[in-house]
């Protein structure tokens, strides 16, 4: 028996919006510690790793480990039926091939339940190595979204160059080129608006904007986003999910032919 | 033109 109730159901709605355009389907792995998901997009260019800790749910019950294969577009459609104020409960039996979602209004007057078929998904689980990154940039999530959107007008790729002075995002294409430079500004009044850079070694990497724009669907989850980079390895784009977990997107770089 | 690398070139299958 698996049962997990999140009082702030809107967080789960946002989580689904953050992954459903990148992943068609994925397996939620549930154990006593919480729910997690790891999946690559269909081109195997990016990887999503998502964790929701058991402590964030009330109640959380997982009698034995289970893997729930889910069509994320279907899950997202059903979650659109929940109001932002609703609590969301996810239930799955031990033998069943279905999952049930229960949406409950804050005063308990309205309770909706939706049942969905589970899928058998063959997953290619990757071992994510522990890495110390050369550059870790924290910036407002909305700013990162804006940068990715703006540079998509110019080209298909963005080159991110991080030095101790700041971080520069550059794109070029048929119409010309564009550069956006952000300086460190850790002294701003509001913590959420800060840009901070921790750098061991300068790095320059190029990434497909198409995927970064998919990652930016997680913007409503968190005021800040963290970019972790080292030369010649995948970029990590991390958004916190309230106090209960995180979604990390990994993106393989592009290299010159 | 840059070529796009894949995640499987970096992280091993488990």
Would you kindly provide a written description of the structure presented here, covering whatever features stand out?
The complex is a heterodimer of chains A (257) and B (14). By secondary structure, chain A is mainly beta. Helices cover 14% and strands 46% of the residues of chain A. In chain A, the strands form three sheets. A nine-stranded antiparallel β-sheet of chain A has the order 6-2-3-4-18-17-16-10-14. In chain A, a hairpin with a 3-residue loop joins β17 and β18 (245-251). In chain A, α1 packs antiparallel against α2 (72-79) and α3 (141-152) runs antiparallel to α4. The mean pLDDT of chain A is 96. Chain B is mainly beta. Chain B has no helices and one strand. Classes of the chains: A mainly beta (257), B mainly beta (14).
- Largest sheet of chain B, described in full? none
- The protein's oligomeric status is heterodimer
Strand content of chain B: 15-25%
Overall 3D geometry of chain A?
globular
Structural class determined from secondary elements of chain B:
mainly beta
Helix content of chain A: 10-25%
Q: Give the percentage of residues in beta strands of chain A.
A: over 45%
SSE topology string of chain A? EHEEEEEHEEEEHEEEEEHEEEE
Low-confidence parts of chain B: none
Radius of gyration of chain B: 10 Å
Rg of chain A, rounded, reads 20 Å
Distance between the termini of chain A: 52 Å
End-to-end distance of chain B: 32 Å
Concise summary:
The complex is a heterodimer of chains A (257) and B (14). Chain A has 257 residues and is mostly beta strands. Chain A has helices at residues 10-19, 72-79, 141-152, 209-215, and strands at residues 2-6, 25-31, 34-40, 46-53, 60-62, 66-71, 87-92, 98-104, 111-117, 135-140, 157-163, 166-173, 176-183, 196-199, 203-208, 224-229, 235-241, 245-251, 254-256.
């Amino acid at each position: 028996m698996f049962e997990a109730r999140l009082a702030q159901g809107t967080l789960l709605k946002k989580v689904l919006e953050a992954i459903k355009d990148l992943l068609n389907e994925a397996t939620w792995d549930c154990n006593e510690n919480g729910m997690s998901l790891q999946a690559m997009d269909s081109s195997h260019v990016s990887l999503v790793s998502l964790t929701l800790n058991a402590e964030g749910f009330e109640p959380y019950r997982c009698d034995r480990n289970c893997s729930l294969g889910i069509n994320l577009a279907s899950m997202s459609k059903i979650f659109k039926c929940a109001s932002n104020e609703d609590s969301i409960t996810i239930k799955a039996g031990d033998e069943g091939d279905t999952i049930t979602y229960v949406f409950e209004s804050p005063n308990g007057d309205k309770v909706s339940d939706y049942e969905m078929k589970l899928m058998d998904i063959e997953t290619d689980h990757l071992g994510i190595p522990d890495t110390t990154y050369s550059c870790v940039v924290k910036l407002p999530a909305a700013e990162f979204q804006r940068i990715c959107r703006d540079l998509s007008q110019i080209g298909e790729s963005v080159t991110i160059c991080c030095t101790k002075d700041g971080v520069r995002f550059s794109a070029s294409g048929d119409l010309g080129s564009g550069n956006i430079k952000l300086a460190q500004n850790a002294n701003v009044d509001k913590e959420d608006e800060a840009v901070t850079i921790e750098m061991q070694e300068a790095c320059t990497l190029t990434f497909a904007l198409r995927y970064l724009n998919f990652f930016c669907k997680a913007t409503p989850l968190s005021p800040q986003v963290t970019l972790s980079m080292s030369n010649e390895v995948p970029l990590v784009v991390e958004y916190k999910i309230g106090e209960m977990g995180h979604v990390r997107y990994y993106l393989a770089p592009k290299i010159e032919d | 033109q840059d070529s796009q690398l894949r995640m499987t070139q970096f992280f091993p299958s488990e």
